[in-house]
Amino acid sequence: MSGPRITVVGSLNMDLVFRTPRMPLAGETISGHAFRQIPGGKGANQAVAAARLGGAVTMLGRVGDDAFGRQLRDCLLADGIDASQVLAQAGMASGVAGILVDDAGSNSIVVTPGANMALTLEDVEALAPTILASDLLVCQLETRLCAVMRAIEIAKRGGVKVVFNPAPMQPLRADWLALVDYLIVNETEASQLSEIAVVDRATARQAATKLLAMGAGSVLLTMGGQGVFVAGQGDNSRMLAAVPVEVVDTTAAGDTFVGAFSVGIGQGLGIVEAATAAQYAAALTVTKLGAQTSIPTRAEVEQFIASRAARAPVEAA
Ligand code: RIB
């Protein structure tokens, strides 16, 4: 493996995806278009994105001792990811996500975490040498908070850059943000963390400014069709416009952004350049159904950027 060394601590889920004309109402039964079983989980998706974009990726996580667990691990291996620390947890089921995707490309997701919650603080401590040999650590919150925070503490103490995507949000101690070099949040997560309702560029700026003041090194606030607000220490914030595409399914767009951004930073790009490249990768993801089935390769992203070269997505703040 070559490219920036990236360790991902996080979740693996088998996604059970139902294509449906619209979201059913409470108590209603409707007919769907199609069903597919697709590998996912925020941690695994971010690992796959980083690997397909050129990172040398190691993943730490837990799956169940079941068929889904074997498939999830095999999918990481197929992308060249070191999955030797994705262990099967005896007596537990793998994480599963039930996902409804409607004709507008919107989704609703229910996750039963299963073995993801078996990842312990001790598991993370055993991986400390791998974390410390990395260029970046990437974490989310679909595993136990204490394990994620331990990984972040190890990385920070060893001078390894931390990319943190606190999704799904859990209550966090504010002082932990000081351990995070790159905080990647959507509007909901930014609103919860900053206690400022993020609805537009102005409120994104306010929230990002507060998150920086709370200690985050840089803030990347992803806003779907509105684009990404990028803010670093000092007065260098920018709104990057979204890359327009035909939306099929937004699942894993955020994860692709996280993985692609991490590779860009690991390759020495600045935050605006890394976020711009990550936006193109995330845009491609929404043009296809599913999580890991939709994450593009580096060649696909480069071809896409070349095809859109005339439409630069960077705008002044
Ligand atoms: O971010 C998308 C992911 O969230 C899905 O793959 C699903 O597994 C849930 O974890």
UniProtKB/TrEMBL annotation:
Q: Which organism is it from?
A: Janthinobacterium fluminis
InterPro entries in UniProt: Carboh/pur_kinase_PfkB_CS, PfkB_dom, Ribo/fructo_kinase, Ribokinase, Ribokinase-like
Tell me which UniProt keywords the record has, alphabetically: ATP-binding, Carbohydrate metabolism, Cytoplasm, Kinase, Magnesium, Metal-binding, Nucleotide-binding, Potassium, Transferase
**SUPFAM superfamilies per the UniProt record, alphabetical:** Ribokinase-like
The entry sums up its family as follows: Belongs to the carbohydrate kinase pfkB family. Belongs to the carbohydrate kinase PfkB family. Ribokinase subfamily.
Q: Could you tell me which CDD domains the record lists for this protein?
A: ribokinase
Q: Where is the active site?
A: 255
- Name by which UniProt lists this protein: Ribokinase
Predominant location category:
cytoplasm
Task: Drop me one GO molecular function for this one.
Answer: ribokinase activity
Where on this chain does K(+) bind?
A: 249, 251, 285, 288, 290, 294
EC annotation from Swiss-Prot or TrEMBL: 2.7.1.15
Name the needed cofactors.
Answer: Mg(2+)
Residues reported in the UniProt entry to bind ATP: 186, 222-227, 254-255
Q: Which reaction does it catalyse?
A: D-ribose + ATP = D-ribose 5-phosphate + ADP + H(+)
Q: Could you say which residues bind substrate here?
A: 13-15, 41-45, 142, 255
